[in-house]
Automatic annotation (TrEMBL), chain A:
Chief location category: endoplasmic reticulum
PANTHER family named among the record's database cross-references: DOLICHYL GLYCOSYLTRANSFERASE, DOLICHYL PYROPHOSPHATE MAN9GLCNAC2 ALPHA-1,3-GLUCOSYLTRANSFERASE
Coiled-coil ranges per UniProt: none
Organism: Liquidambar formosana (Formosan gum)
Ranges that cross the membrane: 20-44, 137-162, 174-190, 202-227, 328-346, 352-371, 415-431, 451-469, 475-497
Family label: Belongs to the ALG6/ALG8 glucosyltransferase family.
Pathway: Protein modification; protein glycosylation
This protein's name: Alpha-1,3-glucosyltransferase
Topology within the bilayer: Multi-pass membrane protein
EC identifiers of the protein: 2.4.1.-
Top EC class, one word: transferase
A molecular function GO annotation: dolichyl pyrophosphate Man9GlcNAc2 alpha-1,3-glucosyltransferase activity
Subcellular location(s) of the protein: Endoplasmic reticulum membrane
TrEMBL record, chain B:
Enzyme class per UniProt: transferase
Transmembrane portions of the chain: 18-37, 108-127, 139-154, 160-176, 183-206, 226-245, 266-287, 318-339, 346-363, 416-435, 456-479, 491-510
The entry's keywords: Endoplasmic reticulum, Glycosyltransferase, Membrane, Transferase, Transmembrane, Transmembrane helix
Pfam families: Alg6_Alg8
Gene Ontology CC, one term: endoplasmic reticulum membrane
Entry's localization field: Endoplasmic reticulum membrane
GO molecular function: dolichyl pyrophosphate Glc1Man9GlcNAc2 alpha-1,3-glucosyltransferase activity
Protein name: Alpha-1,3-glucosyltransferase
PANTHER family with a match to the protein in the record: DOLICHYL GLYCOSYLTRANSFERASE (PTHR12413), DOLICHYL PYROPHOSPHATE GLC1MAN9GLCNAC2 ALPHA-1,3-GLUCOSYLTRANSFERASE-RELATED (PTHR12413:SF2)
Amino acid sequence: MEKRRGKKVMKNEGEDDADYAWWWLIHKGVTVSFMCIAVFAFLVRVAVSLHPYSGANNPPKYGDYEAQRHWMEITLNLPPKEWYRNSTNNDLNYWGLDYPPLTAYQSYVHGLLLRSFHPNSVTLFTSRGHESYLGKLLMRWTVLSSDAMVFFPAVFYFVAVYYSGHHSGRKSDIVWHIAMMLLNPCLILIDHGHFQYNCISLGLTVAAIAAILSKRDLIACVLFSLALNHKQMSTYFAPAFFSHLLGKCLKRPNPYLEVSKLGFVVLGTFTVVWWPYLHSRDAFLGVLSRLAPFERGIYEDYVANFWCTTSVLIKWKRLFSTQLLKLLSFGATVSLCLPSMVQQIWAPSNKGFLYGLLNSSFSFYLFSFQVHEKSILLPLLPASLLALEEPFLFGWLTQFALLSMFPLLCRDKLILPYMALFALFILIFYLPCGRRDMRETPSPTTLKSFVMKFLVLCSLVCHIVYLTMRPPEKYPFLFEAAIMLLCFSQFMLLTAYTNAKQWKLSKPGTLMDKEKKLI
Amino acid sequence: MEEKTDYSNKPLKPMSNFTWFGLVATCIKLLLIPSYHSTDFEVHRNWLALTHSLPLSQWYIDETSPWTLDYPPLFAYFERFLSIFTKFIDPNIVDLHMGLNYNTLSVIYFQRITVIVSDMCLFFGIYRLTKKLGYRRRLMIWILVIWSPGLLIVDHVHFQYNGFLLGLLLVSLSYLEEGRDLMGGFVFAVLLCFKHLFAVAAPVYFVYLLRHYCRAGLVRGLRRLLMMGVAVAMVFAAAFGPFLYQGQIHQVIRRMFPFGRGLCHAYWAPNFWVFYIILDKGLAFLLRKLGFNIQVPAASFTGGLVGDSSPFAVLPQITPLTTFIMVLLSISPCLIKAWRNPQPGMITRWVAYAYTCGFLFGWHVHEKASLHFVIPLAIVAVHSLEDARHYFLLSIVSCYSLFPLLFEAQEYPIKVLLLLLHSILMWLGFSAQFTETAVTKVSAKRGDSAATKKGGFVIGWIGKSYLLGLLVVEIWGQFLHPYFLGNRFPFVPLILISVYCALGIMYSWIWQLKFIIKSP
């Protein structure tokens, strides 16, 4: 079936060499192309994993790598009840576990793997700050295998669902989209360079999104609950999931039953995951307090969100109490994602849902409490799912997301993979004869293109200045602040654009068209 | 309407395909910089140091490091040229004594980047060779050569400059295919002065140039012969002249041809001699069972260093002269063909065949030398379905035979993924190319595309089971052998790889020989 379609495409496009450019890759069907791109994407990940991780050779605290290793050590050697509790065996001040239980279970499983090959790397106490060739290798392989087992199949599921049925798009567009999703430079750099397991929570989220698109709402609830239980950061998507599912339920004949079914599934999943901590109120609240580290302040380092950027003018941390700031940030976040939620409750649609994910994650990134640079991965995920509809948005966001993480990656000594992956991203984004719209889109007006060129130049200058110059003594973080300011302005503009776009979807005529195309 | 006119005026011109392929490969090469590198890395660092800090007269005499200079002079000049840039990076790199086993980030980045930059030569060669071909063939050749897993493994992980040298070979071949024989011969002479191992194809070049270039009447022929002679002599004079002047030519030659090294490298390259050794061991074993008194040879093949004493228990010893005669004999069919009918369309095949013979029967052959014929064969792989089938098999075998070069666990997924990706791309590319041509042929005849099945890219069952066998060999060597036998017989997996790959290379040799004999 796939084969025949491929031939038809080829015949329609005839002798044109430009069309052959990628025809050879797709003529065996999307599945084979997916395999091919997946192998390439995996190769890139393995190559990035050769590079140093965060906090390599940097005692006493090391970095995220040591945190993950320490969690394996703790979960492997202590009973679950002790994992989140401060004790003589578990010093919570030294990289205490502060992710939900699913991360702890994942650490336990990976710890088992490490113990069977290299017991020294996970023994209690003595393995603190353990660094070795084999240790690094095994740790890297745990991330690689999680990526291969969670993120890749999830993307495949998404592609299968999103492009099933009578999709009118060209196959080369689909293949380009797969490459964009699998070769997202930010995700690769953070997971396989810096060292984290975002691929698991993001993979679960992608799978949940795919389940919603294929109308399996209950499965979507399970998957998204698991994502929430792997990283609390997945809450960034919660408003979108909530509003979309609620909107869908309200459209059905028996809304109460539908909502309660979903509610039970979510509660059930949470109960299973949290089982060891449900025996007493104290244990439950103990874990919960570990997950919400309010004492760390409203922002850390130089993250390109509202609080951090405006702190150049208003010293939030000094002027307001933490309690008030909590309220303020909560109010701001909710009010920014409210329009998108209302739209989804009023007129739930698949495309609207994807925009809703983007909007709610943006509002969290920009306004919520305690945001990290790495959280830009969350808005990037729905943007990558929308890459074919919004290529410009995706390219622009990726570019500035990379810039916003540049100081962090510099500290991790990942400049080389940063540059290589950035280049690779640009190469695939502007694939010769790749996307149809590249050949057909109108060039932007002169003013717009001038502004765009200027911004790209700014970003380039930021990179070069940050690498080569020393900041003045008086303002040691001048360059970080400049990068943050530039990125924040772009993120704000993109948020405004995506919100407007989502609302435009619900205009009667267009909605029908889009729905038809998607289903 | 106004917007419509803007449509044609694209803001972003799609990068030309060729640059795109090259740049993607460069990104991967950059990512591979921190990977494992072999002692060849230190060899080349030492050459940088000794050419930088010693006068020319000392280059082939110096023995500060065990990794003495054993490439021809042009390569030494090349290293001297590269060493100029160390001044801006880290002068310690080229310090003859301080730099020994120097392993900081600066030297790794510097040397790796020199390899990446020198690959421009490969890109240029492949660009020259493919610029006149149809788009589809061109694309396939780019995929095969620019993304060659073998070159990535040997040059960018293991560390060598093969991309650069093979680039020179491709440039020379591209001139010959165009009919510009003088330039072709000149570039080949340059290549020989960079790395003399490429001399295996010299007889083919000699016969071909003599018959193709110099066959133009007596006077013109003689004049051309003279011109070619002068061009080649100039290259050699430029390379070896200074050493001749110093009276060191003997020393240079001795360094370049270290015959004391033995028939096989520590890891046996998958060639004919593997069978010879296995046969010897088998015979010795059998005869001992039958009650004959067979001496255990003093030198062993599995011990690593192989000395001068005969390592064979039963079969006659092999000397460099034997291998030389065997190589020449095996090349001779192709020489006869080149003598009778020197045609530019065949030269790439002949040269590749000569390197195959050199690889199979040569003295002290490295497994890396299989690149010398796999890369040129990529040029002809797109010509016909049989070529493509043969190349598919050969390329996988040759890449697999390089696996033992990267023995550390860190690079294991890299080499496996490279080979896997290469196989998928080859399969997709060849099947697209050949089903596609089948379709156009049929539809041109009949006007419909009903009979598109004809002549697709399919590997026969023998080929398939052979390739599956590779998987079995790998699984045995990596998992089952350590599991069942532990640390005993650590050389068995390596021998297994050599023997199994040697079968594939032998097949390729016979296939090429048959093709050459059958050709008009």
